Amino acid sequence: MGKEKVLLGMSGGVDSSVAALLLNRRGYEVYGFFMNACPSGKTSWPSSIKWKEEEKIVKKICKLVGVEKLFVVDCEEGYEKKVISKMFKDYEKGLTPNPDILCNNVGKFPGLLKKAREIGADWIATGHYARVRRKKVPPVRLKIIHKSRPVLRGGGGFEVELLRGKDKKKDQSYFLVGLGQDVLEKCLFPVGGLTKEEVRKIARQNKFPNWDKRGSRGICYLGKIDVKKFLRERIKEKKGNVVSPRGEVIGTHPGTWFFTIGERVGDRKGFEILDKYRREIRNTRLFVAGKRRGNVLVVAPEGDEILKTKKVFVKNMKFVNSEEKGRMKARIRHLGELHGGVLRKSSAGRWTFVFDKGVEGVAEGQFIVLYFGERVVGGGEIRL
Fold first, then answer.
1. Is residue 231 part of a domain?
2. Which of 2, 21, 299, 318 has the fewest CB atoms in 10 Å of its CB?
3. In the Cβ-directed half-sphere of 270, how many Cα atoms lie within 13 Å?
4. 62, 75, 103, 187: which is the annotated catalytic residue?
5. Distance from CA of residue 290 to its chain's centroid?
6. Is 103 a catalytic residue?
7. What string of DSSP letters covers 242-308?
8. Residues 376 and 344 occupy one common structural domain
């Protein structure tokens, strides 16, 4: 039999570069896949990413490692339609979206799978710090949960579990919530069992030009940008009232869509808070506590109980494997604290997560991702 083919999603970063090397060493026939969101050199959105430089680095790595062929795909139009437009619509609704999770679910992984089928690849891979574990399950259970899966010797089938990466400081499993079994069963995450330090060491030993390149930051395909400035380019300001926890009007703001729950209130952000109220609270720091209809923002002094959320509803709940309920841990942001609590399902089919303790900074539109030990249970969008 010939070598198994794998299509690897690549960037100019060290993680996907080392992933290419490891896959090659493991005997795979490796093909590269680079999604360029700015092939024209100019887009309608800001980006801190230097796309031409990224592509040059990818080509150098492919030559060093021995990647069979690199596919460069123009994703500029698709990114605007599927990610940027959706992000702005969510902000206009007063939500706090996570474009990175959306990008993986509607852009990166579907794109990888499509190209993998075209070239007859057996697997897809990325440089994410996450792991998968293939678990054999009885045929009957497999049929009920996943309809159909490849059959292993002995008459059983398998399902795939998604696990946190070994490096807990770099774990990216949060961003992969929403990927179904049809995607995960094809996935390889070569660096998921390594730490970032180990990855850089491998890159340095193999004289990779990007061994010490800083990791990507900010939003998927946009990088580190001024999000508020970007929002103001497409969403007009609309002055609204700021109210205290007691409901009294204490100032104004330029629009609820420019702020998120838990954000600190400041004059430079466009807030105008009455001096009388500031004196009343003895100039204690203020934070956004909630959003109400009619373009109203609720703010509260630091330490106020209204800033803490005890229960959230989970919209579009998706499980990695079968449905689960009961005690588990939850994250409301990438690498955020793991909060203990209980996942429940109402008789009407609505999912809720009740935290053991009130959690600050919980906003509608954010993703809650649930874990049982190392395993990702599933997740969905937060609603309050």
1. no
2. 2
3. 16
4. 103
5. 23
6. yes
7. EE-TT--EEEEES-GGG--TTPBP-GGGT-EE-HHHHHHTTT--EEEEEEETTTEEEEEETT-GGGE
8. yes
Residues 6+ apart with CB under 8 A from 296: 240, 241, 242, 243, 256
Are 127 and 200 in contact by the 8 Å Cβ rule? The answer is no
- Is-catalytic flag, 187? no
Nearest to 187 by CA among 197, 199, 173: 173
DSSP secondary structure of 68-82: S-EEEEE-HHHHIII
Same domain, 12 and 69: yes
Query: By residue range, what is the domain housing residue 42?
Result: 5-205
Instruction: Report the C-alpha gap between 139 and 322 in whole angstroms.
Output: 14
pLDDT digits (tens, 9 = 90+) for 331-374: 999 999 999 999 999 999 999 999 999 999 999 999 999 999 99
On whether both 92 and 173 belong to a single domain, the answer is yes
Nearest residue to 107 (alpha-carbon basis) of 86, 90, 127:
86
Assess if residue 349 is contained within a domain. Answer: yes
Tell me, yes or no, whether 246 and 377 share the same domain. Answer: no
CA 39, chain centre distance (Å): 24
> Parallel, antiparallel, or unpaired: how do β-strands 70-74 and 29-36 relate?
parallel
